[in-house]
Design brief:
The protein is an all-alpha fold. The chain folds into two domains: 51 residues, no CATH class; 118 residues. It contains seven helices and no strands. The longest helix has 48 residues. It is rod-shaped, with a radius of gyration of 27 Å. The two termini are 19 Å apart.
């Protein structure tokens, strides 16, 4: 495969990326060909040494998604990176996706629980200031204890939510590290 065929195949397989990203990837591989020619190598030798352009395109997409996830750790970027990584191997598809989804679900459940605790504290404070109606009257609770109980619940809920936020950041960092390790493993097995 000569340079033109290699670049065309590479371009076909990186279509989903932005124009700037595609141009950067193409420039990088054109540079490989220029360096190889300066060393006296033929285009066919260079393309063989670089590898399959489809696999290279897949790796370039994953690396780009990893760098975007590192720059901005959003749920969207992390999910796009994970979905791209699934294609790297059977192990990821069978084991890692299930574990990732379960842990992500737990983190979402913690966020919901934190907001529910805050909301229950707000309801308790509101009920404390309502006139006593037989429906809301509980002899063991007076307005003052309900008010302070509400403040306690709100405080605990906020701390719980903040803790969950940091747990989510840690989880996204671990996920990015795992994907980088996967990329290294895949690259290492191809060399």
């Amino acid at each position: 495969m000569n340079k033109k065929q290699f670049i065309n195949e590479l371009e076909r397989n990186i279509k989903g990326l932005s124009k700037e990203d595609r141009e950067e990837i193409i420039r990088d591989y054109e540079e490989h060909f220029e360096i190889g020619k300066k060393k006296g190598r033929k285009e066919e030798e260079i393309s063989i040494s670089l590898g399959d352009p489809r696999q290279l395109a897949k790796q370039a997409k994953i690396e780009l998604l990893v760098s975007k996830a590192e720059e901005k750790k959003s749920v969207r970027n992390i999910f796009r990176m994970i979905l791209a990584t699934i294609g790297m191997g059977f192990f990821n598809l069978i084991f890692v996706v299930g574990i990732f989804c379960a842990l992500f679900g737990v983190i979402i459940a913690f966020f919901v629980a934190g907001f529910a605790i805050v909301l229950s504290g707000l309801v308790l404070i509101i009920v404390a200031f309502l006139p006593t109606i037989d429906l809301f009257y509980i002899p063991a609770f007076n307005s003052v204890s309900m008010f302070f109980g509400g403040i306690t619940l709100i405080s605990f809920g906020m701390l719980f939510t903040i803790g969950t936020y940091y747990l989510g950041k840690w989880f996204s960092s671990i996920t990015i590290r795992y994907v980088k390790l996967n990329i290294k493993i895949v690259r290492g097995s191809k060399k």
